[in-house]
Amino acid sequence: MSRRSALQALPVEFTGSYPDPAVRLDPPLPEIAFVGRSNVGKSSLLNVLVGRPGLARVSGTPGKTALVNVFRLPTFYLIDLPGYGFARASKHARSGYRRLLRGYLDGRTTLAGVVWLLDIRHPPSADDVEMQELLAASGRPTLVVLTKADKLGRAARTARARELADALGLEPDEPQVVSSVSGDGIADLGDSILAAAGGEETA
Ligand code: GDP
């Protein structure tokens, strides 16, 4: 049985949706931002982490919204950044997204950490590599999370996690492996997020 996420014990509320991540949040608190390709499982993961099934919308049609969704916990915010890499996105939309992300990563003084999601089944895409470069250039603490682990058996999961770590130039055990369906890895990720946000890590 999976342990529950410590975040699930905390009250959470939807603060709002904003087109501009430079939005001023009141009160200013540390922020943990979630980013990943459209359809990587970001909304599902947010919902499972906080234990509120309907909080972030899970969509069958990826990449439609480019809004920043903000969720408030007592001592920090979870920031759901727009998904990237939508195949049909125009050149204009792509460069707009890059500008948005770079501005947020470089300028946001309240940003405490980034949770970067990759689908465990796929090698990093060109968009993922670009995101990694943006993250590295920003110097922001980043938790690398591999999603949809339930789609693979145990052995394949470990092997894929190592391959992806290698492809990304990370230590073999650095990526955290999660499934929003089985709950695997969710509690550990919740602890990492609390620690990154400056809160208590619950053992
Ligand atoms: P987002 O676009 O990154 O917010 O992704 P969503 O959370 O909307 O999920 C995209 C699709 O992947 C949906 O059909 C989800 O049901 C599915 N999905 C998300 N997380 C998981 C997971 O951990 N396991 C499995 N099997 N499917 C998932």
Brief synopsis:
The protein is built from five helices and seven strands, in the order ββαββαβαβαβα.
List the helices and strands and how they pair.
Elements: E1 13-18, E2 31-36, H1 42-50, E3 68-72, E4 77-80, H2 91-107, E5 111-119, H3 126-138, E6 142-147, H4 154-168, E7 176-177, H5 186-196
Parallel strand pairs: 2-4, 2-5, 5-6, 6-7
Antiparallel strand pairs: 1-3, 3-4
The protein binds guanosine-5'-diphosphate.
Helix-strand topology string = EEHEEHEHEHEH
The CATH architecture can be given as 3-Layer(aba) Sandwich
* Spatial order of the strands forming the largest sheet: 1-3-4-2-5-6-7
Round the Cα radius of gyration to an integer and report it.
Answer: 16 Å
* Ligands bound, unique: guanosine-5'-diphosphate
Given the helix and strand composition, which structural class is it?
A: alpha/beta
Describe the structure.
The protein has 203 residues and is an alpha/beta fold. The protein has a single domain (6-196), classed as P-loop containing nucleotide triphosphate hydrolases (Rossmann fold, 3-Layer(aba) Sandwich). Strand 5, helix 3 (126-138) and strand 6 (142-147) form a beta-alpha-beta unit. It is 32% helix and 19% strand. The chain contains five helices and seven strands; from the N terminus they run ββαββαβαβαβα. It has a seven-stranded mixed sheet, sandwiched between helices. The two termini are 16 Å apart.
